[in-house]
Amino acid sequence: MAHDLKLVSFDICPFVERSRIVLLEKQVAHSIDFIDLANKPDWFLRLSPMGKVPVLVVDGRPVFESMVINELLEELYPHPAMLPAEPLARAEARAWVVYCNDAVMPASYRSLLALAAGWTGEALAKPLEELRGALARADAEVARRGGPWFLGRQLTLVDAAWAPFLRRWAAAEEWGMPEQNRLAAFPALQNWASRLLAHRSVAAADPGEIGPRMRRLYAERAARGSG
Ligand SMILES: N[C@@H](CCC(=O)N[C@@H](CS)C(=O)NCC(=O)O)C(=O)O
User: Fold this and answer.
1) Residue 81 lies in a domain
2) What is the pTM of this model?
3) Which domain CATH number covers 132?
4) What is the mean pLDDT of the chain?
């Protein structure tokens, strides 16, 4: 059955990008409604209980949270499959998405904020070190599984969840990032990232000019003290 899908987006949001990747990978027709997060419209606040994007409006019904949206897309559009068939492997997939959400994205956010704002000392070193530890653990996992994608031979929701982080991290390498935090310091992650960022759906979901746009946004946030 055909559904009417509208993705409510902020154009450089990494969480929106996860859902864009899945929609593009599955070649599902959809429209996109961009909003300004600094000035959220009332209609958006009525749809999004936490005031966050993405929201996917499916036949008029709003669904929020990127990974909930992506699992819904997997159920509505099972081809190509983006979760393994076996229950234990599906659980592993979900767990590595949570790892990205809880161990990688918050440390990455704080690191990017510090780098964009030119902070030094503990304010920079602490999030970078936290992220380094999280990436080292993921690097060992990707190496152990042998690629080409995170879980192995199948491109999954895990790849869709990590790709926006990898894109942003690669783009920020020019911002005075120490060598030991660059993707080159994590060979399995680097290999996976270059393959993933070149993959059709992931490349098509690129918001463009992500480095400078992200740097402006983060520097503004740091200046407002809203980190
Ligand atoms: N856990 C959420 C996180 C979404 C999120 O944090 N979105 C940010 C933009 S990238 C947002 O809407 N923030 C609200 C705000 O800035 O007020 C998800 O995975 O969808």
Assistant:
1) no
2) 0.97
3) 1.20.1050.10
4) 97
